[in-house]
């Protein structure tokens, strides 16, 4: 589904709900992105990311991104934090949301919600051109790096660990 096909009826949002975090008790809710639909997951609860961790992290990422009115947001990685950040960005009526990932399931999950997706496997060599093409040549106004720290270890950390 292209961005032009996605309905965006701004008239249904109240002005008071913009910029205000949802007042929902999320301490006991398991993320629907990770928990099996049956509710019987057959494993320890710590295998799942809880919304009490996921929601505020993603919300704060979108807030700190400071996307201007009518602006665009690029989200690097659509794992749970990036996926939730894209959902929050939609609730804040950010006009253009682009998600970048290389896992089919994550890309497929974002498309029906009118997130423009970039498959890193297809566009690795000309990524900057692809992003500029989706943003009328300007590039995104803001970027959220939702990859996470465990995705890489800085060289200084590796050498410090090796000296122990």
In short:
Helix content is 34%, strand content 12%. The protein has 6 helices and 4 strands.
The CATH topology label of one domain is: Rossmann fold
Radius of gyration: 18 Å
CATH superfamily of one domain: NAD(P)-binding Rossmann-like Domain
Largest sheet: 4 strands, parallel
Beta-strand level of the residues, as a percent range? 5-15%
> Distance between termini?
52 Å
Low-confidence stretches: 9-32
Percent of residues in helical segments? 25-40%
* Oligomeric form: single chain
Average predicted local confidence, pLDDT: 75
Second CATH tier, the architecture of one domain: 3-Layer(aba) Sandwich
Report the CATH C-level class of one domain. Answer: Alpha Beta
The number of distinct helices, counting runs of at least 4 residues, comes to: 6
**Class derived from helix and strand content:** alpha/beta
Give the ordered list of helices and strands: HEHEHEHHEH
| Strands in their spatial order, largest beta sheet | 3-2-1-4
Total strands: the figure is: 4
Overall outline: globular
Provide keyphrases for this structure.
about 35% helix; 4-stranded parallel sheet; single chain; alpha/beta; 6 helices; about 160 residues; Rossmann fold; globular
Structure overview:
The chain has 6 helices and 4 strands; from the N terminus they run αβαβαβααβα. The chain is α/β, with parallel strands linked by helices and 164 residues long. It has a domain at 51-148: Rossmann fold. The model is unreliable at 9-32 (pLDDT under 50).
């Amino acid at each position: 589904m292209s961005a032009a096909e996605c309905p965006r009826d701004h008239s249904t949002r109240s002005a008071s709900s913009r910029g205000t975090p949802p007042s929902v008790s999320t301490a006991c809710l398991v993320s629907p992105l990770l928990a099996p639909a049956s509710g019987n997951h057959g494993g320890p609860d710590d295998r799942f990311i809880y919304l009490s961790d996921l929601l505020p992290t993603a919300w704060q990422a979108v807030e700190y991104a400071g996307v201007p009115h009518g602006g665009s947001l690029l989200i690097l990685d659509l794992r749970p934090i990036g996926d939730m950040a894209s959902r929050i960005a939609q609730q804040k009526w950010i006009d253009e949301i682009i998600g970048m990932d290389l896992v089919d399931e994550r890309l497929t999950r974002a498309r029906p919600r009118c997130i423009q997706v970039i498959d890193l496997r297809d566009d690795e060599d000309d990524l900057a051109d692809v992003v500029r093409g989706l943003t009328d040549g300007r590039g995104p106004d803001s970027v959220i790096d939702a990859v996470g720290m465990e995705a890489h270890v800085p060289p200084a950390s590796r050498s410090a660990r090796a000296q122990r």
